[in-house]
TrEMBL record:
Native source organism of the sequence: Amphiprion ocellaris (Clown anemonefish)
Protein name per UniProt: Fibromodulin
Biological role: Affects the rate of fibrils formation. May have a primary role in collagen fibrillogenesis.
Annotated GO CC locations: extracellular space
Listed PANTHER family: AGAP008170-PA, FIBROMODULIN
Length: 401
């Protein structure tokens, strides 16, 4: 918009650059992929330059009738990528202070707060200019993060370090102390044996799945009031203690594929999704799902659950949309709420189809909202389903036996 008012041919280009700096940051926060943001900013530039170009063409058409009559656009180099070197070189020349990017990384001039060092076989941390907010270091072979590596990186908002070879004893104890604005930390697929100390309280999304973590302590996650996503799956955690209780914004918790023998005490009350599959949980505490206000998805497949370990009415809670209890040792269908939509019970030892598990009363307004019901791999067959089921399970579009 600013560009539309410009008259002097070179001045618009500088305005475009300024426009960039203002918007690139905003775009990064509303998209999940920074490379996508670059495309967006490039489009922005193109529009901007095209508008400026019109003015320039008006200006130049008087001076350069010959070059235009040849059909050659004098500003083509600015917005096409036919000669990328020239294109980037020109923009970089306009971008002040672009010389601090380490050789092994890319710092696109179009997105000056991001640095891409992913998938380059790095074994050590590159130096990080202080302007960087989004740092991509995934898919390398980095083993250590010494305190000195991040002294200048105090503006980091995203730090992507998944698929490296980080070991807990090679992460400096002060590394995270200065990253006070960090919101996303991806550490999945490394060799960590514990959650790094002093993680920033500002974190919103912490992914540390596929490591070798054995223990999570309350101090590890203390004060993370904004944490909404926590991926801890595929580690070796046997006890969570009360480490999760204080996470008041947590909506997605994945601790599947660990060594839990019981459900963690004191789960955060605002969870939407709770994934506990592939552990060794054999029983559930009384009122286990009673305290949640927004819980919709509960996955507990591949545990050791038996009928005896599940108190009556554990799953008869409204609000639940999906319940996965497949690959356990259940002999009966547990009582579920009429509002449940998807129930997975395949590969248990269920011997009887109890319609009362779904409907205690059946009439015009009382019926089950169940759409998906899987009972295959149990000890019943289709003939065990009573004909009255059609009334109770009138919304079920898929029943597998
Ligand atoms: C941090 O910044 C200072 C001053 O710009 C520089 O001398 C130093 O090498 C930087 N350190 C790292 C690890 O990037
Ligand atoms: C990380 O773990 C993998 C597999 O568990 C192993 O092959 C590799 O040597 C480990 N790397 C380090 C640096 O410990
Ligand atoms: C959580 O987010 C809010 C709003 O963005 C912010 O004001 C607050 O400081 C954050 N809390 C922490 C612990 O960083
Ligand atoms: C499930 O809970 C509702 C209300 O909380 C109750 O009316 C209903 O009888 C319960 N279902 C069974 C089968 O106990
Ligand atoms: C279900 O049946 C009970 C008892 O017949 C009735 O009071 C209630 O209004 C019905 N509808 C719903 C949605 O619970």
């Amino acid at each position: 918009m600013q560009c539309g008012h410009l008259v002097v041919p070179l001045y618009p280009l500088l305005m475009c650059k300024a426009f960039y700096h203002q918007t690139s940051d905003k775009i990064a926060t509303i998209t999940t992929e920074a490379s996508y943001s670059c495309v967006l900013t490039k489009i922005t530039l193109k529009i901007c330059v095209t508008m400026a170009m019109r003015l320039v063409l008006v200006f130049l058409s008087a001076l350069l009738p010959f070059s235009l009559s040849q059909g050659r656009d004098p500003l083509a180099w600015l917005y096409t990528r036919q000669s990328p070197g020239y294109y980037y070189g020109s923009v970089q020349a306009l971008t002040a202070g672009g010389g601090d990017c380490p050789e092994e990384c890319d710092c696109p001039p179009t997105f000056p707060v991001a640095m891409y060092c992913d998938g380059r076989g790095l074994t050590a941390m590159p130096s990080i200019p202080s302007r960087i907010k989004y740092l991509y270091l995934q898919n390398n072979a980095i083993t250590a993060v010494p305190d000195s590596a991040v002294v200048n990186a105090t503006n980091l908002v995203w730090l992507m370090m998944h698929h490296n070879q980080l070991r807990s004893d090679a992460i400096g104890t002060k590394v995270f102390l200065k990253l006070e604005g960090l919101e996303r930390l991806y550490l999945q697929h490394n060799n960590l044996t514990s959650i790094p100390p002093n993680l920033p309280r500002s974190l919103r999304d912490l992914r540390i799945n596929h490591n070798h973590i054995e223990k999570v302590t309350p101090a590890d996650l203390e004060g993370m009031d904004n944490l909404t996503i926590l991926y801890l799956h595929d580690n070796a955690v046997s006890d969570m203690g009360a480490s999760l209780k204080a996470l008041k914004s947590l909506t997605l918790l994945d601790i599947s594929g660990n060594k839990l023998t019981k459900v963690p005490d004191a789960l955060p009350e605002h969870l939407h999704q709770l994934y506990l599959e592939s552990n060794s949980i054999d029983s559930l505490p009384e009122g286990f799902l009673g305290g949640f206000t927004q819980l919709q998805y509960v996955r507990m497949a591949r545990n050791q659950l038996t009928d005896k370990g599940i108190p009556a009415n554990t799953f008869n809670v409204t609000g639940l949309v999906e319940l996965d209890l497949s690959f356990n040792k259940l002999e009966r269908i547990p009582i579920v709420s009429t509002t449940l939509q998807h129930l997975y019970l395949q590969a248990n030892q269920i011997k009887e189809f109890t319609l009362g598990s779904f409907c205690s009363i059946v009439d015009v307004t009382n019926f089950s909202k169940l759409q998906t019901l899987r009972l295959d791999g149990n000890e019943i067959d289709r003939r065990d389903i009573p004909s009255e089921s059609a009334l109770c399970l009138r919304q079920a579009s898929s029943i597998e036996v």
